[in-house]
Structure formats: C-alpha cells, structure tokens
Amino acid sequence: MSTTTVKDLPKELLIADNLKGELLKEHNLKHTEATEKNPLPTAEDLKQEKTHQNIITGIEGFKSDSLKRTETKEKLVLPGEEDIKTEKTIQGLILGVEGFENEKLKTVKTREPVSPSAFMKIELARDSSLTAVSDFDRANLKKAETAEKNPLPSSEAIAQEMEHIKFKVGIESYDKSQLSHAETLEKNVLPTQEIIAMEKSQ
C-alpha cells in the first residue's frame, strides 16, 4: 500500500498558514468548571405523574365483560304540518325576493327638506293670510237666504213603486208546489214533397 506524503496532497486539503498559526499559538482562556444540571421533579410533578399512571393502569385493567349490551336506535323526527307551512312560506318569500324584477319599480323622487328661506316665505304668507281673514269686514257681505229643496214624490210615483213592490213580493213568495208537472214535446215537422222537389231542383 503506497503512502502519500504531505507534499503530494492538494492545496485545498492543507491547513492555511495563518489558520495553523492561530491554532498553535498560546491562548489566554479562563478556567471554567462544567456543572451537570439535572433538576429533581417537584411534588406537584410527582402527583401528576402518579395520577397519569393510575389512569393508564385503570384503562389497561378495565374488563369489557362488565359492560351491558345496548342497541343504538336512530330516531328520525319528521317535521310537523306547521313546520312545513312555515318552511314553504319562507321559501316563497325567498323565491319572490330573488325573482323580483327591479324594472317594475316606479321612479320616486325623494322630497328634500325645506330650506330656511323657503320656510320663512311660507310662514310670512300664512301670517298675511290670517291677518287678511281677521281684518275682513263682514258688513260688506250681502244677506242671502238658504232654500232647502227636497221634492216629495208624486202620487203616481208612489203608486208605481207600490205596484213594483207587490210584484216583487209575489215572485219571491210564490209556492212552487202549486205548479203541475208538464212534459215538453219536441216537434220536428217533416218537409212536404213540394219542398223536397224544390230542394232537388236547386
């Protein structure tokens, strides 16, 4: 087996001179003692660990034979009639809102509040109207008499109304049991020979 000398080694594997000098020179290092830290668990840690171990031991030593057999029953509660009606109403409202066409809405202009100047003009006009009414002289009015017109019906109109009432009462109070049973006979007149001859000639 051939041995490789230091001279034959590539330069990248050799330690640089400056780094070699740093390693070989004396260093003024402080003496320190290494202390191994291994803190003991507290009483609370021991208590928690003991509780955890008891739980694990209880689970591992549990006997499944002591359990009672049970059957799972799935209950499917159907909605009542009122619930269905309420759901249909809600669905109808949702569909109505979703399918509503905005084009059917009418354009509405919002009425803006009156400005202070416009409000002052309205108040002044109102005050002037009240002043004119209060200062009005009633002596300038002409006296007029109210004639109440309520024409009474004539004797002929009263007689016609009475006849109409009697006729109406007679129809409403008529006894249908007094009617006799009748059968309707449908008459179908056959054409004569002359009529048949005329029809053929046409």
Question: What key phrases describe this protein's structure?
Answer:
mainly alpha, elongated
Q: What this model shows, in words?
A:
By secondary structure, the chain is mainly alpha-helical. The protein contains six helices and no strands. The longest helix has 19 residues. The chain is elongated. The model has no long low-confidence stretch (mean pLDDT 79).
Short recap of the structure:
This protein is mostly helical. The chain is 45% helix and 0% strand.
Distance, first to last CA? 145 Å
Question: What are the secondary-structure elements, in order, as H or E?
Answer: HHHHHH
Which residue ranges are poorly predicted, with pLDDT under 50 across at least 5 consecutive positions? none
Number of strands: 0
The portion of residues forming beta strands comes to under 5%
List the helices and strands and how they pair.
Blueprint: H1 17-24, H2 43-60, H3 81-98, H4 116-134, H5 155-172, H6 193-201
